[in-house]
User: Which sequence fits this backbone?
């Protein structure tokens, strides 16, 4: 409730990430932290971990609030072989949305063209929108696709919960690969 200390004042009070590699790797992430707009209690960190070999890892992040209280979180993740398509961290922001949102996902094919489709359905399964972006190339591992909250007839969708299916297709050395993921979004106007 008191915000995140990004100044690094105080010995050891930086935002620190540790990965359980051999030897252990530690990163100071203060300059990579970006606070949420109009919300001092949260934010996001984007830090490239391009050199990790294939395998399973544990990432621990420790941060301090402005009252010098520490907090630590741990996540487990897997680095897939570079040539096998991997998609993760799928979400739309803001969610709930009002008039627009961004569909965001992380992938392991930066610099390679991706064909992305997003099909949006009511909870009863009625299709209401189809978004397609072909040959999307990102310089990093994050992709963002905007949506204006309108259906195929350009009418505003009503309040409620919707399902979306994200499909990502990439040409890899093993041939064409596709991944589908299903998520929810909420519209509140």
Assistant:
């Amino acid at each position: 409730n008191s915000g995140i200390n990004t100044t690094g004042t105080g010995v050891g009070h930086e935002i620190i990430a540790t990965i359980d590699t051999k030897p252990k790797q530690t990163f100071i992430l203060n300059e990579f932290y970006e606070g949420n707009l109009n919300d001092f209690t949260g934010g996001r960190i984007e830090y490239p971990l391009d050199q990790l070999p294939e395998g399973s890892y544990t990432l621990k992040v420790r941060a301090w609030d402005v009252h010098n209280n520490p907090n630590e979180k741990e996540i487990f993740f897997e680095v897939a072989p570079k040539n096998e398509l991997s998609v993760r961290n799928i979400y739309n922001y803001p969610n709930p949305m009002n008039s627009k949102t961004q569909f965001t996902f992380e992938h392991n094919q930066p610099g390679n063209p991706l064909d992305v489709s997003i099909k949006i359905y009511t909870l009863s399964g009625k299709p209401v929108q189809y978004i397609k972006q072909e040959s999307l190339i990102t310089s990093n591992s994050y992709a963002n696709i905007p949506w204006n909250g309108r259906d195929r007839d350009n009418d505003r969708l009503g309040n409620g919960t919707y399902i979306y299916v994200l499909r990502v297709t990439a040409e890899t050395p093993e041939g064409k690969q596709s991944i589908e993921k299903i998520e929810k979004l909420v519209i509140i106007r």
User: Anything to note?
Assistant: Residues 163 and 184 are 5 Å apart (CA to CA). Residues 16-79 form one domain. The longest strand covers residues 160-172. The chain has two domains: 16-79, 87-187.
